[in-house]
Amino acid sequence: MGMRSFIVAFALALSACGPQLPDGPGLSFGATPSRLSASQPTSELKLVAWDQTGAPGVGTVLFSASAGALLEGTSLELSQGTATVTFRCIAGTDPGCSGAAEVEAQWRGLSQSVSVKMP
Question: Which domains does the chain have, with CATH numbers?
Fold first, then answer.
């Protein structure tokens, strides 16, 4: 088999596999930055949700935090599968703002949490 035939056969084999579908709905949740400081007491938390077909999630996401404040509120609507909330924790103002705070997001029976470290 020549190189051209091999490449064609390889491309056909790959295309026969088709797109990979997700195992079901899911969430991805992260914090930027993941460590706060006295001069930077806020973190942007971004949640990405997808449904069982891999399409962007729709609906309401509920957020909760073990300390600090979620500036946009605790209930946000997904927009194109994403929701972003600002977490603020100021040491000295909130006794829970030391060590780490857990922020949880819930959507359609799924939950994901992220830990934000503090001074």
Answer: 20-118 (2.60.40.10)
Residue 104 bridge partners (DSSP): 64, 113
Question: At 20, is the secondary structure helix, strand, or coil?
Answer: coil
60 by DSSP, 3-state: which? strand
CA 107-112-114 angle, to 5 degrees, is: 135
Confidence band for 18, pLDDT divided at 50, 70 and 90: very low
Q: How far apart are CA 43 and CA 32, in angstroms?
A: 5
pTM: 0.80
Q: Is the pLDDT of residue 115 over 50?
A: yes
Q: Rounded to the nearest 5°, which phi and psi values hold at 105?
A: -120, 135
Q: Please give the share of the chain, as a percent, with pLDDT higher than 90.
A: 75
Q: Cα(26)–Cα(52) distance, rounded to whole angstroms?
A: 8
